[in-house]
Amino acid sequence: MSLDVFRLSERAGLDPRRLQDRIGEAVQGADDGELFLEYRETETFSFDDGRLKQASVDTSQGFGLRAVAGETVGYAHGSELSDEAIGRATAALAPVRSGLGGTIALPPSGCNDRLYTDVSPIGATSLEAKVRLLQDIDAYARAKDPKVRQVTASLAGSWQVVEILRADGHASHDVRPLVRLNVQVVVGDGDAMESGSTGGGGRVGYDGYLEPACWQGMVDEALRQALVKLDAEPAPAGEMTVVLGPGWPGILLHEAIGHGLEGDFNRKKTSAFSGLLGQRVAAPGITVVDDGTLEGRRGSITIDDEGTASNCTVLIEDGILVGYMQDRQNGRLMGTGTTGNGRRQSYAHVPMPRMTNTYMRAGERDPAELIAEAGAGLYATNFGGGQVDITSGKFVFTASEAYRIENGKIGAPVKGATIIGNGADALTKITAVGNDLELDKGIGTCGKEGQWVPVGVGQPTLLIEGLTIGGTAVKG
């Protein structure tokens, strides 16, 4: 199925004129609004303990009808694509429109080039090939090292079709594939056990992940991580210099800084970055962008869920805060306009400002120079879970792979390290930026107010002075 032939309103047999009347009635007197139609196919397979543990396939469809008046949002949704159901939703929005006399906002900007295939990964690859992939991963991992105790592999795919219709007749369409492969390996030595995990994905088909060079590389990496942790010593504690590796450590940037640059938090003045536009918030040389236009990336969107073309939005430029990520409502209320960051989990959710692919641009320094310059401290190359307070900017993150830095060189691996700090403060403590920008492998999912959307993160190697490390090493 392709974008050119899959129109949800036509597929559901909805009369175009009647549909236009419904939308017009729903947003009459409001500032903005739209009808969001969605069809989605999803599948998940998991292989654990040498057998297929889960195989699920699902399809869903529905609509969301929204009317926006100032800071007020009326939203009604349903899983039935019919004139009757949309009519009931229109009636439910009447209280939002009562007494209003607004002028409806202009339609979204035109769509940019398509960033991904519109072919469904679910139908393009056989069930046998997907299950065989997971079996091969399990067998390969167990044959790699006698210390392997357990192997878990999962494969997931989805195909989302959206249609966004407005009262002014403007229509936007997108077809979004998404796949993800994850591998976890548990190793043991006596009573000691450790695990390593890796994965990859994006808005592509399954083909590349069926290639042995791809999935074997994932297994090798997960096994390497597990074996490193098996030999790791307790992490030191205290304030020290930290070097963050490239790629996935950008999750710290995403959580500790990115959320604070979303428009709704700043309009409500609940972000640590509220009211700081035009001011220095980071060290010179630090540039942070949110870029939804990267081809095939997990966080990319040809259009956002309000119909606006995705953009590369500069947030921090050479250390100066220059912009926030905006949806239509918050951009209008703040007088900046949308940046194409209005995203929603599904038809049952309202759009809000969300990140796409958020990363720090590369600098000019050789990463090896940053390790040498650190002298002593911690080198963190992978992160697990973390927490952040948007209002204060305070964060705590667990480093799932880290090493001591001793005499300007990478030393012994450590475990149990947590990095504690404040996002805004940490930006000012970056003293060097590597030239090795990497994006993550396509595994990120971001939660906000109960909604989950796929995202991407990235950064080059960074040298940061004076971060607090929580460790488990016993001081002598």
Question: How would you characterize the overall build of this protein?
Answer:
The chain is 23% helix and 39% strand. Strands 9, 10, 11, 14, 20, 21 and 22 form a seven-stranded mixed beta sheet that branches. Strands 3-2-1-4-5-6 form a six-stranded antiparallel beta sheet. It has a five-stranded mixed barrel with strand order 8-15-16-18-23. It folds into two domains: 8-230, PmbA/TldD fold (2-Layer Sandwich), CATH 3.30.2290; 234-470, no CATH class. It has 476 residues and is an alpha+beta fold. α2 (16-27) runs parallel beside α3 (83-92) and α6 packs parallel to α8. A hairpin with a 2-residue loop joins β2 (51-69) and β3. The model is unreliable at 1-5 (pLDDT under 50).
Shape estimate: globular
Count the beta strands.
Answer: 23
Low-confidence stretches: 1-5
The proportion of residues in beta strands is 35-45%
List the helices and strands and how they pair.
Elements: H1 8-11, H2 16-27, E1 32-48, E2 51-69, E3 72-78, H3 83-92, H4 94-97, H5 121-124, H6 127-144, E4 148-165, E5 171-189, E6 192-202, H7 207-210, H8 212-230, E7 233-234, E8 238-244, H9 250-258, H10 263-267, E9 288-291, E10 312-317, E11 320-321, H11 328-334, E12 342-343, E13 352-353, E14 357-360, H12 367-374, E15 377-388, E16 394-406, E17 409-415, E18 417-422, H13 423-428, E19 430-433, E20 438-439, E21 444-448, E22 451-459, E23 462-470
Parallel strand pairs: 7-17, 8-15, 14-22
Antiparallel strand pairs: 1-2, 1-4, 2-3, 4-5, 5-6, 8-23, 9-10, 9-14, 10-11, 12-13, 15-16, 16-17, 16-18, 18-23, 19-23, 20-22, 21-22
